TrEMBL record:
Coiled coil: none annotated. InterPro entries: Ribonucl_H (IPR013520), RNaseH-like_sf (IPR012337), RNaseH_sf (IPR036397). Residues 521-549 are annotated as: Disordered. Residues 18-206 form the Exonuclease domain. The keyword Hydrolase applies. This is 3'-5' exonuclease. GO terms for molecular function: exonuclease activity. The keyword Nuclease applies. Keywords: Exonuclease, Hydrolase, Nuclease.
Length: 549
């Protein structure tokens, strides 16, 4: 993200303090005594950059059997941690890593600070029973203000968040462009959270959302390590189905290497079971497998769409298809061996598959028969799959936009330009391409060129097909033709609303501007004086001290 001089100065103010990013992996206590830490990582962010100096990573024995459901998430087993030391041995080092003057603690959701505090409380309880070997406890935990990166994006109005109060780490990384190749590993998650925090603060500085870190902390209101205030989660009404333990165990060995035909077939069989159960781990499995196996798995996975008939199953399957496309696309980090969907066939493939996707059984609006993306409040892949397909087709082999590429291939008056050639057969995809070009050009600080691209897209009516493009178009219309005209356009677009969160952002934009117009009109109304003795005497005007005498 490009910052102006003023924005960069503000970013320096926002990052003047040290941030300590905490992440843990844990398992539940079978006796119901909270959760027990298995691994813990602390990653510092100094001067707006993630650094290795001061980084800490430890693995430990939780003192209880590792729950199979936890094993399915992070991979630790009871046998693997049996010979490791307990938390009490590492507690002094953990507290020492957190003892940094004027630091801020960062975690993704409040669960990390919750389990850390509970472990320290157990040390206090051991000391209270006379255990002299316990050197530290909760009292030695430094009092640090807390930033929760799962709720911070909503506060900063990060594009793509929409109405979601809480976002997952995977979603946050996707929104801000951070790679996390080893999800659910404490060190990798801490580093990814640190990188995402820097991107969020860059966004805050570029938008001039807060003039100081203290103002952001006050508005964020997540408390301190001694008095944490957990967020009020905005939960979906949908009830996620219970995935059997025997299925979760099958996720122990993800396909992260170039698989043999037998291994790829076993992966597809697991995918079939995941789709049937609407398992939330299928997307992660697809992301991990995509780098080395995307091209081999893609077509067989898509072919399963013809076999699914129950609500939520098509969305689960298409979420994995989207993950294969995204994780193996040009420009992915690390680079993929071969893209799952080549840019040369992307739109032809989509033209063939789109009718089948649109005819597939949608997720239920409530209940457990919904896909994982719907449970989490994301856009259902049935509604959003065109986006990664369009990105592949637009970005091409290089995997990025350039001014030359936009001029020579995407926009222009010639018939072979994609803005002209795609519009009749792929109008929604052309609209998404126009939004990508507009956003890229604005980030390049070429506002006049961006407005020209927007005008071309609006002349073709593309802003009525894509909510992201509609939002920037409504802003332009409000500035030139007034809020009423912008509201008409927004209303037309919202009439075709899907589960795509961009529709939430468009509706929120309209609400904000309506409220601002009401407030402005109210301020312009003549004031009624109810206490005449307290009113300014008629005709009296306070002198302006800045006028020349």
């Amino acid at each position: 993200m490009t910052l102006t001089d003023a924005g960069f100065e503000l970013f320096q103010h926002l990052t003047a303090r040290t941030f300590l990013v905490l992440d843990t992996e844990y398992t539940r206590d079978p006796d119901g005594d909270g959760d027990r830490i298995i691994s813990l990582a602390i990653t510092p962010v100094v001067g707006g950059k993630r650094v290795r100096d001061g980084e800490l990573y430890v693995e430990m024995n939780p003192g209880v059997p590792v729950d199979p459901r936890s094993t399915a998430v992070h991979g630790f087993t009871t046998e693997a941690v049996a010979r490791k030391r307990r938390f009490g041995y590492y507690a002094p080092a953990v507290l020492d890593a957190l003892t940094v003057p004027d630091a801020v603690l960062v975690c993704h959701t409040g669960s990390d600070i919750r389990v850390l505090r509970r472990e320290l409380e157990r040390l206090d309880e051991a000391r209270a029973t006379g255990d002299a070997t316990v050197p530290v406890g909760l009292e030695q935990l430094p009092e640090l203000p807390i930033i929760d990166t799962s709720t911070l994006p909503r506060l900063l109005r990060l594009p793509g968040v929409g109405q979601r109060g809480v976002v997952s780490l995977a979603t946050l990384c996707q929104l801000v462009g951070v790679a996390n190749a080893e999800a659910h590993h404490a060190r990798a998650d801490a580093r990814a959270t640190a990188d995402a925090l820097v991107k969020l603060l860059l966004h805050a500085a570029g938008a001039f959302a807060y003039d100081s870190l203290e103002a952001l902390l006050e508005d964020h209101a997540r408390g301190t390590t001694h008095d944490p205030k957990l967020p009020g989660y905005i939960r979906s009404r949908r009830e996620a189905p219970v995935v059997p333990t025997e299925h979760l165990v099958r996720h122990d060995s993800p396909l992260t290497h170039a698989g043999t035909p037998a291994e790829q077939q076993a992966w597809l069989e697991l995918a079939v079971e995941c789709v049937r159960l609407r398992c939330p781990h299928l997307r992660t499995e697809a992301t991990l497998a995509a780098q080395e196996n995307g091209a081999a798995l893609f077509d067989p996975l898509v072919a399963l769409l013809a076999t699914v008939t129950e609500p939520g199953q098509a969305g689960t399957l298409l979420g994995a298809v989207a993950a294969l496309i995204t994780a193996s696309s040009p420009g992915a980090d690390p680079p993929a061996a071969a893209p799952a969907l080549a840019h040369t066939r992307a739109l032809r493939w989509w033209a063939k598959q789109r009718p089948q996707v649109e005819a597939s059984t949608p997720c239920e609006p409530s209940g457990s028969r919904s896909c994982p993306d719907c449970w989490e409040g994301h856009g259902c892949p049935r509604d959003t799959l065109y986006q990664p397909v369009t990105r592949i087709a637009v970005l091409g082999e290089q995997g990025r936009l350039t001014k030359t590429g936009i001029r020579d291939r995407l926009f222009g008056k010639r018939e072979d330009r994609r803005i002209n050639r795609w519009s009749p057969t792929h109008p929604r995809e052309t609209a998404y391409m126009a939004w990508m070009v507009f956003t890229f050009t604005v980030e390049e600080d070429r506002v006049l060129a961006a407005n020209d691209y927007l005008a071309v897209a609006m002349s073709k009516g593309l802003h009525l097909l894509e909510p992201r493009l509609a939002r920037v178009a409504c802003q332009s219309i409000a500035e030139t033709r007034g809020l009423t005209a912008a509201k008409e356009v927004a209303g037309t677009v919202l009439a075709g609303r899907t589960t795509d969160p961009a529709y939430d952002e468009l509706e929120l934009w309209m609400t904000w501007h309506e409220q601002a117009a009401v407030a402005t009109a109210r301020a312009q109304q003549p004031r009624t004086i109810t206490h005449r003795r307290l009113a300014r005497p008629e005709g009296r005007v306070n002198p302006n001290p800045y006028l020349p005498r």
